[in-house]
Design goal:
mainly alpha, 22 helices
């Protein structure tokens, strides 16, 4: 146990020193395993793990969806989504913040990436909110929280990784994420309404759009709906596998961008470069997390946590809340995807033995991991926003996130009380 505490302390120090997450986890994993076992065992274990993942055909689905997201960004669908949401919601109190939530949900549905959602929506939504003098806390909190939708609303990289690790049906996981994703959007819009009711100065009304403009904006977002429905129906009807869905989605996004005359040769190069860069970053995190997991397993922490949960002997509900508490604590120090890779081998056997549906647990886990993206001190979405908003204090960003975090807790409670939120749609496919 003491080795693990030292290892995680070293990991936090490396992250504070701005060492990239994947490399930090890889370094701690290799050095930790060297201390516990031997340098030879550490290097052999790390090289074997990395090689097996690198050549696995199952993980091809990840870069395909990354490429689809890059083409979607190049097509500027995010602009169209925000314009449509702005036209319909902007004239309400906090309307631009609500528009940001709605547009984030739409963009997440075709990008599957939280970081991309935060960066994109910050570029699209912030200028309007600042023009209408929105409070920095509400503006930043809305964008950071809205960005978390990218990890839940399908196609989600987190759900793909969970499905690969647990050998669960990725298509059912995608379908299971739809209703919780919609509930999240509604809860976040509710949070905005509460905030502007208490402090109206944080979210002034924008100009009212004409009905003709509102209808016109709806015609510009058909591409998002077509891509999303094509992927979902294709997978659910067995027309293609998740990997084939990624390829079809990437091709559809490319054709859509070309059809809108928003794809040049330079744009194609930029999209391929961005997708490759993001994929490399993602796989570095995967490699690092799996090597770190080897170290964690050797120290016996997994067994300790497993014994703690099973020792409660109070039924599935209490065990789930105990797991939630552990996940929230881990989320304060570990990035989302890395946390999935670390905890799945520990908790999945426990919940499976309790008879808890693994599809439901996948949604529960991803939502809990979502919260880590905005949880101090490591909350990556907050730090991304801080890098883009030099004039806004990090404390202001986290203050703006706080009410959305409370909504996330409520969402998890609803999911635990009403499992059908995640299981009803997949049950229709059985």
């Amino acid at each position: 146990m003491i080795e693990t505490l030292i290892g995680f302390s070293a990991l936090i120090l490396l992250l504070l020193a701005r060492v990239p997450l994947g490399f930090a986890m890889l370094l701690v994993g290799v050095i930790g395993t060297s201390v516990v076992r031997s340098p030879t065992a550490a290097l052999m274990g790390a090289s074997t793990t990395i090689f097996e993942i690198a050549i696995s055909p199952s993980f091809v689905v990840l870069p395909l969806f990354m490429l689809m997201g890059a083409f979607v960004t190049q097509a500027r669908l995010s602009d169209d989504l925000y314009d449509a949401a702005h036209a319909w919601l902007g004239h309400f109190k906090g309307g631009l913040a609500m528009s940001t939530v709605a547009a984030s949900g739409g963009f997440a549905a075709v990008s599957g990436n939280s970081v991309a959602t935060v960066v994109t929506m910050a570029k699209v939504a912030l200028p309007s909110m600042r023009r209408y003098k929105y409070g920095d806390s509400l503006a930043a909190g809305t964008i950071a929280a809205g960005g978390t939708l990218g990890i839940l609303i399908p196609p989600s990289n987190a759900l793909i990784i969970y499905g690969l690790l647990t050998e669960s049906d990725v298509g059912k996981l995608f379908i299971a994420g739809i209703i919780p994703g919609l509930v999240t959007i509604l809860l976040y819009i509710g949070v905005v309404q509460v905030v502007v009711t208490v402090k109206p100065q944080l979210g002034p009304r924008a100009d009212r759009s004409s009905w003709s403009r509102r209808v016109r904006t709806l015609g510009s977002i058909w591409g998002v709906l077509a891509l999303f429905l094509g992927i979902m129906f294709g997978i659910s009807l067995g027309i293609f596998t998740p990997t084939e869905a990624g390829a079809a989605g990437a091709l559809g996004a490319l054709l859509f961008a070309i059809g809108r005359r928003r794809m040049s040769w330079r744009g194609l190069y930029r999209s391929l470069f961005d997708a490759g860069k993001t994929t490399a970053m993602l796989f570095t995190v995967i490699f690092g997390a799996l090597v770190l997991n080897q170290f964690v397993v050797l120290t016996g922490v997994g067994n300790t946590l497993s014994e703690f949960v099973t020792s409660l002997d109070a039924g599935p509900t209490v065990s789930i809340f105990a797991i939630l508490g552990i996940l929230i604590i881990l989320g304060m120090f570990i990035e989302g995807l890395a946390m999935i890779l670390l905890v799945v081998p520990i908790f999945v056997p426990i919940v499976d033995a309790m008879g808890i549906d693994l599809i439901w647990f996948g949604i529960f886990l991803v939502i809990a991991v979502e919260m880590s993206l905005v949880t101090p001190p490591i909350g990556i979405n907050a730090f991304i926003l801080k890098s883009m908003l030099k004039d806004v204090e990090l404390s202001t960003i986290f203050a703006g996130i706080a009410p959305f975090f409370a909504a996330d807790v409520l969402r998890l409670i609803l999911l635990i009380m009403f499992p059908a939120l995640a299981l009803w749609l997949p049950s229709l496919l059985s």
